[in-house]
Amino acid sequence: MADVKPNLIGGQWQAGEHASANINPSDTDDVIGHYATATTDDVEAAIAAASAAAHDWARSGIQVRHDILRTASDEIMARREDIGRLLSREEGKTLAEGIGETVRAAQIFNFFAGETLRLAGEKLPSVRAGVDVEITREPVGVVGIITPWNFPVAIPAWKIAPAICYANPVVFKPAELVPGCAWAIVDILHRAGMPAGTINLVNGPGSVVGQAMLDDARVKAVTFTGSQATGERVAQASVRHMRKFQLEMGGKNPLVVLDDADLDVAVDCAVQGAFFSTGQRCTASSRLVVTEGIHSRFVEACVSKIRELNVGDALDSRTQIGPVVDEVQLQQDLDYVEIGRREGATLRAGGERLAREKNGYYMQPALFTDTHNDMRINTEEVFGPVASVIRVRDYEEALHVANDTTFGLSSGICTQSLKHATHFKRNAQAGMVMVNLPTAGVDYHVPFGGAKGSSYGPREQGRYAAEFHTTVKTAYTSA
Description:
Elements: E1 4-5, E2 7-9, E3 12-14, E4 19-24, E5 27-36, H1 40-58, H2 62-78, H3 80-91, H4 95-116, E6 122-125, E7 131-139, E8 143-146, H5 154-165, E9 170-173, H6 179-192, E10 199-201, H7 206-215, E11 221-225, H8 228-241, E12 244-248, E13 253-257, H9 263-275, E14 285-291, H10 292-308, H11 327-342, E15 346-349, E16 353-354, E17 362-363, E18 366-371, H12 376-379, E19 386-392, H13 395-403, E20 410-414, H14 418-427, E21 432-435, E22 455-456, H15 466-469, E23 470-478
Parallel strand pairs: 1-5, 8-9, 8-11, 9-10, 11-12, 13-14, 13-20, 14-19, 18-19, 20-21
Antiparallel strand pairs: 2-3, 4-5, 6-7, 7-23, 12-22, 15-18, 16-17
Helix pairs in contact: 1-7, 2-4, 2-6, 3-4, 3-6, 4-5, 9-10
């Protein structure tokens, strides 16, 4: 195919022998493009190129890396509408969400451009007379980056930008469902001046491309966002090579709504957190833990709001909820609706596949009531527009239910009580806590990550990214 978008290996675009079609989930007749599929040999070549480039790249000047990151940021921001449109077309987010995510990616690159100029160490006196101590950060080496399909611009940005900032060469494997956004980002970085071998793109299935990355000892660190099952395989393979690894693996996030909550605020937090981005966010509010005094009013208001949501083509300006990403994910979502029914939950709204003018993967957001925390719909991550209401007596029970999960990414509370808000922030077993805000929605300049089964390793984003992307050296000098 003449129009195949190639992989980038060692500074050269390589189309290879095989390619896969990129399909629009809003319109399955729309083929966005064809993208080269990497082989095991391609991955090995990319790792070899990155390894060969590592020495010189580690000693590159901070101005060089700053300028590359800033140039990339400026182009992404200037092209936010067309990149955002591509994002919405291949992943299914609404156009407003797609453009917003693209802007965030530009901000991330800009932030780490600044961090490049702020690289710092420490100079301390030794406990021994006449000896100085210097503590510095150095690149960790070749970084393997494996990203999911739900944030095809932002998540690659918050992994790639710090890798560049701290002078690590990158081998990047995006999710198969969203090759277009990954290709656009790598193309921008390539043209911004990344030296050959310092940024490599290898599209393809995890069983081939991802596994080849994990099996290669030259990859010194792997940062992964995706499922728990795959995260465990990343961990096992990385321990074998004694490499650094960073895992983000989802959540079953609670939003607690207390009797004293502002009802409009609580409903807005619940609907936005649970259903926007089609519920395909690891920070989505899939468990709505509601106290008795506000329960009935909250449920009725949520049901009313859900029924008003416009589900449709991601590029239609009237659309509030886009399609599910593909047929497999849609079927999983519908299966969980049936599981909830069989478990005895009451389906109060939605839960059915929708037909639209164009053939796509459309689903009406689903809300269950009469659920308890042991149901599968409350213990397993659905990763779609499906949420459950769990009725509790009071704040104490709400906190217990909120924490009663193997996950711990994001946790939220809606209340006007300073006492309860303060106690919840201190006692919620999650890496991120929201008060009167949706559980989904975070800033780019502060740490991102969870507790328990949601995350492992150093935090992502902000200055905390240095913990993963660098190694610490302590040097002693005798005067």
